[in-house]
User: Which sequence fits this backbone?
């Protein structure tokens, strides 16, 4: 082997995905929903009950291939409900033993993409709220409502010229 050569074996193509370790693992991952998960639905119900209206599973910025779970377009608030496994929750993250290197790389890339999304949206003037799937829905709804209020409270009240709220 030449000096500096990588001995980790042949390089895999960019779209390489290892075979599932079992049929049960395959079925479990196939059953994962991309949207409308139980934590998302609970949060959306509470936000709707508070009179907040939003878009669901939408790209906040045109041309950017990142989708937020809940988006308040006028207030520029994007809410992401992150799953503990997929987004490497510091409290509940687990690491698969089968295909461990592949999963480690994949999950690290997801976290990096999350940070890049946060920075991209912030640079465009958006407020990003990230919540973990294990957080109580009432607490997350409070955080989202607070972010929404802080973004809309700065705007002048709607009304005819000369209108002043009491």
Assistant:
């Amino acid at each position: 082997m030449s000096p500096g050569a990588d001995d980790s074996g042949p390089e895999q193509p960019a779209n390489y995905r290892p075979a599932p370790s079992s049929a049960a693992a395959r079925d479990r991952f196939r059953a994962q929903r991309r949207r409308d998960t139980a934590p998302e639905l609970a949060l959306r119900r509470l936000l709707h009950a508070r009179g907040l209206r939003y878009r669901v599973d939408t790209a906040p910025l045109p041309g950017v291939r990142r989708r937020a779970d809940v988006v308040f377009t006028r207030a520029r608030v994007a809410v992401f409900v992150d799953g503990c496994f997929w987004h490497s929750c510091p409290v509940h993250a687990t690491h698969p033993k089968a295909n461990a290197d592949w999963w480690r790389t994949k999950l690290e890339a997801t976290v990096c993409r999350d940070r890049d999304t946060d920075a991209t949206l912030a640079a465009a003037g958006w407020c990003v709220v990230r919540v973990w799937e294990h957080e109580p829905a009432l607490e997350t709804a409070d955080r989202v409502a607070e972010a929404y209020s802080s973004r809309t409270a700065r705007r002048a009240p709607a009304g005819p010229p000369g209108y002043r709220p009491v």
Remarks:
- The CA atoms of residues 91 and 100 lie 19 Å apart.
- The helical segments are 23-30, 38-49, 100-123, 137-152.
- Residues 1-7, 155-159 have pLDDT under 50 and may be disordered.
